[in-house]
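Readers outside the structure-tokenisation community will struggle with the description of the input data as it stands. For illustration, here is how one protein appears when written out as sequence plus structure tokens:
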Amino acid sequence: MRKQLGFRHYFAIGSVVTALVLTISFLNERIPTSRDFLSENWESDDVPSKSYKRQRKGLLIIGRGRSGTSFLSKMFGSGKRIFEVYEPLRFRNLTNVAKIEVLKSFLSCNFASSPLWQKDYFPPFWYLKQKYYFVTPSQHLACLKYRSGSTRCFPAEQMFTKFIDKCRYSYDSTVLKELTERLPDTSLSSLIPEIIDRSLSTDVRLLHVVRDPRGSINSRIKLKWMPDYEHPQFKKKVQDYCNGILQNIEFGLQLNESLQQRYKLIFYKDIATRPVESAREVFKFAGLRLSDKTLSWIENRTSPTKMDSRRQFKNPYSLVRDSKANIEKWRRESPPERTLIIERICKPLIELMEKISIEREYFLI
């Protein structure tokens, strides 16, 4: 006599069926067809006529991590027809020459034929925040690798063309943010005059963001990006950190008059204490229009409600902050021993920053 299935058996069968359905749904969602993938990511209704011509504007924002570069990048990205490029040197080990090529190409939306795009770096996949991919030039394919182990390949040339069209005709300007530690030789001198080149079709400006090392190092330690003062390598790391920033500031201050017009040094403290005024300054410097939408974006992130504050402050990467209260936060959090070490090692940098701030306030620069 056939044995009847009990509730547990039906439950087990139901669970298996559900799991299969979810798995199939997941695969369908993660691995689209080539046609759907291209249509979803590259076709836009707001692309103007290709006969529309105007000199493109490019802004390169650089600074050490935890210095306010992300806030500025997202602030610009909230504007109209601004192509925000967020850390394009991340996830790929590139030569110094290749790094410059990537930065110049994104800033100008001019991706000239290059072996780099056919092998180590595929800009359309970077734009879609895809980390795992490979390119097969012989077959003219660009392929994504999925967590399930599957791959999906797309026509590389067609994808590249659509990406470039979107970059050029959907946006008038590019704002690119990158960390100083990823630049060639971690040096500002590697970018100037390579990036700020008047022969380019794009008007490129460079915005250099610097934060008081006592605040930025405190933040980096909290995120475990850097060991604390008890560690034997702490002093060496602080020395390297501050020396690099100091050298970059000094290089920027020594630029000739022509290049000075395309370079601007801004302090985290200024952004935090007077965010709207600072926004007007940097938008004017970049030659971009500051919209009401961006002003609202700034207000919502620098003067949050108490409810927003409690929810967002738990996330160390959140851009929502009580900006004025955040400036001197390190004084409450940093142990005196750590602060003394930083102040002693970074004295030349701290004094130069204070000197520049006083001069700007006095001369209203």
In short: The two ends are 95 Å apart (CA to CA). Residues 20 and 198 are 58 Å apart (CA to CA). The beta strands are 56-63, 82-86, 133-136, 141-145, 151-155, 173-179, 202-210, 263-267.
